C-alpha cells in the first residue's frame, strides 16, 4: 500500500491553491474511478483533495432558460432533477444507463467527464500502453479491441471514452466551466477532449491543475424531445459498446432541427455533425436517417473485431430517429 495524503476543501480558491502545492496531487470526486486506478497502480497521487464539500452541488436554471449543473452534483441527483428530466430527457436517460445505483450516488459530474478509458491494457501494468506510458505501444490494435474506436482514432491509441453522460451533453452543446490559480475559464465540450493523434496520454484541453466547477447547458427547445439509447453486452452495470443521444424537431414530415451524438465509438463523445447537416430540412424517413448515418460513418476505420459497430450505429440512428419522429407526430 502506497501512502498518500487526504484533505477536504470547502472553497474553490482553497481547492485550486492546495492542488497547486503538489504536482502529484489529484482532485477527488466520488472516487469511483480514481480510487480503482490507484488500487491498480495506474494513478499514484501523493495527495487527494476531496472536492465533494465545495459549494458546487446545485442545479439551477440560467437567466436565458438553460441549466447550470455544479461539478459535485452526483449522477443520481442529476438524473432525478425535474428540470433535467423535462428539458433534457436524454441526459437523465444517459446518466441512468451508467454504472449502478450505488455508484451513481457517489459519482460526480466533474469526475464523470474525466473518467479514464476502460481499455483493459490501460489498467494492466504488465502490458505496454501509449496512454499510460507514452511511446510504449498499443497492444489493443493487434489484440483485444472489440469495444474500441471506429472514428477519430490513431495508430497510437484506439481506446474509447466510456462516459454515457458526456454523449448527451455533447448533443446539447454543453460548456464546461473551470477555475485555475489564474482565474476562471470555459471550454465548450466540443473542444474539451483533445484529438488522439500521437499524444493519447493528453486527453483534455483543461489547463493543468484546473478544477471543474460546473457545466452549462444552453437553452435548447429541441432537447425536450430527445432520447439516449445504449447497447451493452449485458442488461445493466456495463459500459456501452455503442450508444446514441438524439433530439429531433419534425414538422409536416420535415426535419426542422436534429441533434445527434454517438458514444463508445471514439476517444470522446462523437457529435455527428455531417449526419445532422444532411438531415436538416429533409424528410423524416427511415431512408433519410440511414443515408445520414452512412455519411457520418463513411469515415469509420475498423479493426478485425470492431467492424460490427458501423452496422450497430447505423441501426441505432434509424431506430431512435424513427421513434422520435413517431413521438413528435403523435
Ligand atoms: C463498475 C463501474 C461501472 C461503471 N459504469 C459506467 C457506465 O456504464 N457509464 C458511465 O458513464 N460511467 C460508468 N462508470 C463510471 C462512473 O460513472 C465514473 O467512475 C464516475 O462518474 C466518476 O466520477 P467520480 O466523482 O467518482 O470521479 P473520481 O473517481 O473521483 O475522479 C475521476 C477523475 O476526475 C478528476 N476529478 C474529479 N472531480 C473533479 C473536478 N471537479 N475538477 C477536476 N477534476 C476532477 C479526478 O482527479 C480523477 O482524475 C462506472 C464505474 C464503475 C466503477
Ligand atoms: S487503445 Fe489506448 S489505452 Fe488501449 S492499449 Fe492502446 S494506447 Fe493503451
TrEMBL record:
Q: Which UniProt keywords apply?
A: Oxidoreductase
User: InterPro entries this protein is in?
Assistant: CO_DH_flav_C, CO_DH_flav_C_dom_sf, Diverse_Substr_Oxidored, FAD-bd_PCMH, FAD-bd_PCMH-like_sf, FAD-bd_PCMH_sub1, FAD-bd_PCMH_sub2, Mopterin_DH_FAD-bd
Q: Which PROSITE patterns match?
A: FAD_PCMH
Which Pfam families does the UniProt record give? CO_deh_flav_C (PF03450), FAD_binding_5 (PF00941)
Query: Where would I find the FAD-binding PCMH-type domain in this sequence?
Result: 1-222
Q: Where are the transmembrane segments?
A: none
Instruction: Please state what the protein is called.
Output: Xanthine dehydrogenase family protein subunit M
Q: What is the lineage of its organism?
A: Bacteria, Bacillati, Actinomycetota, Actinomycetes, Kitasatosporales
Amino acid at each position: 500500500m502506497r501512502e498518500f495524503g487526504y484533505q477536504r476543501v470547502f472553497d474553490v480558491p482553497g481547492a485550486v491553491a492546495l492542488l497547486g502545492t503538489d504536482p502529484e496531487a489529484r482532485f477527488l470526486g466520488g472516487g469511483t474511478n480514481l480510487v480503482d486506478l490507484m488500487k491498480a497502480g495506474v494513478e499514484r497521487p501523493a495527495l487527494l483533495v476531496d472536492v465533494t464539500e465545495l459549494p458546487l452541488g446545485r442545479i439551477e436554471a440560467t437567466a436565458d432558460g438553460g441549466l447550470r449543473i455544479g461539478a459535485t452534483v452526483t449522477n443520481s441527483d442529476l438524473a432525478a432533477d425535474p428540470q433535467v428530466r423535462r428539458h433534457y430527457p436524454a441526459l437523465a436517460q444517459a446518466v441512468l444507463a451508467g454504472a449502478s445505483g450505488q455508484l451513481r450516488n457517489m459519482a460526480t459530474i466533474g469526475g464523470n467527464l474525466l473518467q479514464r478509458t476502460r481499455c483493459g491494457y490501460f489498467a494492466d501494468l504488465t502490458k505496454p500502453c501509449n496512454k499510460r506510458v507514452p511511446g510504449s505501444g498499443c497492444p489493443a490494435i493487434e489484440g483485444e479491441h472489440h469495444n474500441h474506436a471506429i472514428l477519430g482514432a490513431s495508430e497510437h491509441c484506439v481506446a474509447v471514452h466510456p462516459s454515457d453522460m458526456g454523449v448527451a451533453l455533447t448533443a446539447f452543446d454543453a460548456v464546461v466551466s473551470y477555475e485555475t490559480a489564474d482565474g476562471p475559464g470555459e471550454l465548450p465540450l466540443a473542444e474539451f477532449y483533445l484529438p488522439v493523434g500521437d499524444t493519447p496520454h493528453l486527453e483534455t484541453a483543461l489547463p493543468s491543475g484546473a478544477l471543474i466547477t460546473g457545466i452549462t447547458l444552453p437553452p435548447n427547445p429541441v432537447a425536450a424531445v430527445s432520447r439516449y439509447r445504449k447497447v451493452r453486452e449485458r442488461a445493466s452495470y456495463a459500459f456501452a459498446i455503442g450508444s446514441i443521444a438524439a433530439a429531433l424537431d419534425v414538422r409536416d414530415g420535415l426535419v426542422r432541427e436534429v441533434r445527434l451524438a454517438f458514444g463508445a465509438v471514439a476517444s470522446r463523445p462523437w457529435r455527428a455533425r455531417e449526419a445532422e447537416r444532411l438531415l436538416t430540412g429533409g424528410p423524416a424517413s427511415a431512408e433519410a436517417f440511414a443515408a445520414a448515418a452512412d455519411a457520418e460513418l463513411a469515415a469509420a476505420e475498423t479493426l478485425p473485431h470492431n467492424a460490427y459497430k458501423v452496422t450497430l450505429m447505423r441501426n441505432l440512428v434509424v431506430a431512435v430517429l424513427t421513434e422520435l419522429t413517431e413521438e413528435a407526430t403523435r
